[in-house]
Amino acid sequence: MTIIDALLRSDVERCAELERVMFAGDSPWPAAAFRAELDAPYNRYFALREAPGGEVIGYAGISILGPEGAYECEIHTIAVAPSHRGHQLGWALLAEMLAVADHLGAPVFLEVRVDNEPAIALYEANGFVRSGVRKGYYQPSGADAYTMIREAAGVPAVVGGGEEFP
């Protein structure tokens, strides 16, 4: 049984370890990058675990940008350990992030390697469309990225008065 909960500072070393395995050719994020992402008040990061309190086997992060009433969201990362792929766990992580955007009535943007066919299929199945190409986006490999967008879904929630984002 897998669960999705909040990514914690105590998880960042494991995330950096997974990054080194999964993104070795494209500047994997170090632990410091994950800490900075967790510290940003406009980000929401999720951990995928095999059991409550267990080791991270996947993670995802979304940023909430813009003024109230005109929010936009950007997916920063989504990853599942190679040993756990093929079980729709990426779908589950994406669903958590899209729920945040839908709660805010916000469109969602992302970049994905043009050769990452499983990720592209996942995004397109969830309403994303290709909107452009960023040449040489991934470094140091120089791989291109598609920019993709999913139009706003859901009804915007009123967020204010010091409330946390969903």
From TrEMBL:
SUPFAM superfamilies: Acyl-CoA N-acyltransferases (Nat). GO terms for molecular function: N-acetyltransferase activity. InterPro entries: AcTrfase_RimI/Ard1, Acyl_CoA_acyltransferase, GNAT_dom, YpeA/RimI_acetyltransf. The keyword Protein transport does not apply. It comes from the Bacteria. Keywords: Acyltransferase, Cytoplasm, Ribonucleoprotein, Ribosomal protein, Transferase. Gene3D superfamilies: 3.40.630.30. Residues 2-153 form the N-acetyltransferase domain. One of its GO terms (cellular component) is ribosome. Belongs to the acetyltransferase family. RimI subfamily. PANTHER family: ACETYLTRANSFERASE, ACETYLTRANSFERASE YPEA. This is Ribosomal protein S18-alanine N-acetyltransferase. It comes from Gordonia asplenii.
